Amino acid sequence: MFKQRFIREIRKNSNLLTRLKEQKFPRLPLLYNNYYENDNKLSDSNEISTAYFFDAIINAISPGPLDIPYLYNQSIGHNVEHKIGDKYKSDQQFGSSPKYRYNTNNNNDCSSFICPRTASNVDSEIKTNLILIILKRKFLKNLAYIATPTNVRIEAITNNSVVVQWDFIDKNNNNDNNIDGFIVKYIHEPNSLRDDNNQWKSLSVMDSFARHLYIDNLLSNKSYAFCVIAIKQNRQGPCSDPPVIIDRITPIHMISNLLISWKTSNSVMLKWEYNGPQRIGFYVNQTGRKDYLDQHLQLKGMISPGFRQELDGNQREHLWTTLRPYMEYTFHVGVRELPPSIKEYWPREIIVKTDPAGPPFVDIPEFIESFETSTAMIKLKCASEEYGPISHYWIIVVPGNYTQDDVLNLDSTALQKSTALMRPRSFHSSSNSQKENPLNFEKEISKTKRFIFNTNSVNGAYITAGIPVLDMRQMQRDNRLFTLGDGQIYDGYENWPLNSNVKYRLMMRVFAKDDHSGNPEKMFEYRAPIQKPVAKRYSDSMLSEPFSTKAAQIQYGNTRASNLWLIAPLIAVMVIALIVGMLVIWERLDPLRRPGSQERWLRCSRKGSSHTTHRHGSITKVALTGNVPSETSKLLVSNDIYGRQVVSPYDQMNGNGNPIMESSVDMYSSNQGHINNYSAVPIPMSLIPSSGGVIGGHTLNHPPVPISELAAHIEKLKMNNNLLLSQEYESIETGQHFTWEHSNRDNNKVKNRYANVVAYDHSRVILNTIDAIPDSDYINANYIDGYEKAKAYIATQGPLPETFADFWRMVWEENSVTIVMLTKLEERSRIKCDQYWPSRASSTYGNIQVALLDTLELAHYTIRTLRLQCRGSSELREVRHLQYTAWPDHGVPDHPTPFLMFLKRVKTLNQLDAGPIISHCRYENTVDIYGCVTALRSQRSYMVQTEDQYMFIHDAVLDAVQSGSTEVPANKLYTHIQALLQIQPIDQVSGMELEFRHLATLKMSNSRCGIANLPINRAKNRLMNMIPYDSSRVTLHAIPGIDGRRNAYIATQGPLSNTIEDFWRMIWENASSIIVMLVKTREAGREKCCEYWPEKSAAQFDFLIVEPIAEYNMTQYVLREFRISDAQNGHMRTVRHFQYIEWPEQGPPKSAESFIDFIHQVHRTKTQFGIDGPITVHCSTGAGRTGVFIALSIIIDRMKLEHVVDVFTTVKLLRTERQNMVQDKDQYHFCYHAALEFLASYDNPYQMQ
């Protein structure tokens, strides 16, 4: 055969082989043997195969011309073709030189062949064919050059396995992956390179993107040689040169025993071992993917891009949080060398799927029509299975006058039990019937028979149908309606007929499928520690609008636009009670420096009674003096959420614009009356100071202050450096003349957190005595009276570990339903309170079992839902634990707005049996803070400990009176906006404009901006009326030799040319990895912001190097990615820069939907990349557009988590942190419009986790 003859001639060519040997190309035998053995496999064309063999031999030698002798017929002249691009040029060559030259220097597809006439004894057939093969380009023009893999690295991963890594770049082809795969060849103990190819073993990976290959079953502690070959079109390229030799197969920089310690729906705990060289660090890379059915039953895919964490070398575990439920994640953990080295070693891999959770969103059951008195047609929609496969659906019927808060976190087990206890029962109607205990559905409404709950039921809701997931899917595909009340059995639940005289609301609960169903052995696999909260396996929809079977359409009624508080002395005294009681309850000072205590407030109802009160007491509406009304009086004539008419005080202003106080309006119907089975706390008359402080009265020297004069009164107290306020505070009786004999007993001293914080005998809480245990009735707690209700609260110290059982016994015996906590567990490295509730699952304290049902962490406070059960009792109770987490370690908050939001949540969650908090005012429409504090001190020692707390009470009451509560349920937002857009008769402007005008009255004194006003900093401010407050400005680390610090913020102005370095320092030092830019560099012909980022190449700003990585032009924004590195230590971080380009030069964005989508993209990026640092937002001034972005982010989050909207308070809160946030009324209006637009998009659930 031709090929064999050709091979023999090459072997005879001693000159060529000698030269190759001299050049020390050790892989040539490998190449030779490889092509010799595999020639038949490479091509059916002998000519092409042999040419390829010859070409590979030549290319194995370093670049440069190679003279190959004795290959031509001496009598023949040959045409030599030069390929230049796609063209060929022929030249006839003659001469006497016995060699031809093959030039391998040309990288532009141009090869030169010089073929002189020579003399030879080589067989003519071989010579002729060889010339044709090599020189006739028609045989070679379709053969692509195959590049050689480079940078081959070998790492041992065990004692008998390695991973081979390589790089591959084809310089002659822009597509590096235009190949079929790779072959890795290896040989054991390569002491000498053998011509015998049997000594070399090979493994292939047919993937053009492959850059590594695992090889196992090797001999430990033995040396091996490796090389890599690229494959294209069934042809092999040259092997990587030289072969890489590893002395022994022993892992060095490799972790071991990588495992999953535990996991939840959004976190995974990784653990590993490492015994290699020290002075290293670790890296953890994470990717994820999942496939799921969305709410439209379309199959969707989700891929999480790669995220990375770098860890210290002393760590052996890492908790990766902010993961998505039921997503398959791949984690790689490896060793990295410390800077300045950037070398990283091969990682271990582990794959895990996070736990499922309830769906991200559940559509509200939609009432369609009713044809009969006992049935209604409703439309149900499937939920997305993004967070895990769905098992089944519950349709839950709720009384028509209950709110979303009433059905929050209904216990599924209790709901099933109460549903099972349903039975027919007759009862009579009452036109004024109101809702009783939350979700007790027993109401006197009709003589007709209907199905109700047993009075022992935990909830007044019931499950009317269970629907398996397959049935729900089919129902949606068929577009079928569900008949509510048809009497059929659905998955074990009877669909009870409805009553035409009753209004109902509906809710749907969707359950995720148990990840271990059918495999109980895996139930405890990867189980998280008990203190780690786990996600609920179900999700609830919001409540539908009330409906009845008589009407064929939803009966919305003339519902009020918002469930607002009416501002009155009640609001003032309620704030006093909560602030005075709760502030003072939790000690803010060191007890060694000033006597005090850490106490807890308990909202409680009558001991030992199942009856609870429902009356909130009388309240009085009031507007601001002048033409700026309070925020609770925006609507002229409207209804509250229960349909009762509310008359606005606009109609009641006198000719001077001042309000005329109206008679009270009851929150609940009068037929219930005011029921109070407690007697007032008995205070010995001989112990009451003559100067005042009597409950319900006032002191002679400090009469109550009319609400209309409150602002002026507080301003007067603050004059001369708070002189009058200090004198007033010091004159308040301390209450130390009361007795505390029980606190001083030997058995009780250990139950007191501080020796000087005691429980007065006359007002102490007395527990039921436990037999044979002396003083078992004692706990350091006192009753506090409320407005028209004695013993409305309990003020107690933070429980000690030895008093946990007594604390929960008190909660049970006093039938308390709300616990308010105003401290963190630890502040400034000091224990302020021991954790007395379980972090996960349940714990038993004495005879009380406490289970944690749910935890909701918000910006300023955390809400926990607890379930209590007493040993020997089947009764279950639900308690809300509200912890305010924004109180500073020292002093009081800078502004009361967040705290008032917290008080509103306390009242909302406790609304059915929480009477008005406290009022010690003798006259209507007055505030008696002095008398209130005096009265509180007569019931509990050291109530209101500091002058700052006393002043904070005044500020909070004034803020509540002036601004009121503008919070509305999300489902009432449209009605609220419509009402706000109405023109008010007094001012002839809309209520929304009045809201915005009121914001202008909250301007802070410029004295709070002292740092920004320093001469060294004034040049760094774009506008002097938009500079940061000292209390909330971002502080940069001082640089030696530079005077002053930049006024840079998280909400910041667009950088000036002289503040670019400071801007990037702010980004670096505050670990901010996302920048949001809401302005173009030039607008309306003026510079709005300098271009502070590099466009093409890296730029250095002080010690920071900013390097552009990528830029993506989206429809609404431009996304840029930068790599920021610290030139001092080599640390790096990726920063993503979002520039919104659709904000017009004048006015707000044209499309609220596109701006909401932009907010969503920013927050989704923050979540996906596991970014912990703040988002830096700027426009030109850092106020107007910046305020809109941040305000809407907060508003949307509250709508999702709390189902409420409060635009006014959100903007007010932002303005306490930075001036002029949300700058004009158009932007303010846009916030409302965007919030409404977000609600309209609920069919496409919005995720911002």
TrEMBL record:
Tyrosine-protein phosphatase domain residues: 725-960, 992-1238
Keyword annotations of the record: Hydrolase, Membrane, Protein phosphatase, Signal, Transmembrane, Transmembrane helix
Domain Tyrosine specific protein phosphatases: 1153-1229
Reactions that this protein is recorded to catalyse: O-phospho-L-tyrosyl-[protein] + H2O = L-tyrosyl-[protein] + phosphate
One example GO MF annotation: protein tyrosine phosphatase activity
The protein's Enzyme Commission number: 3.1.3.48
Topology of this chain in the membrane: Single-pass membrane protein
Gene Ontology CC annotations of this record: membrane; synapse
Protein name: protein-tyrosine-phosphatase
Organism: Dracunculus medinensis (Guinea worm)
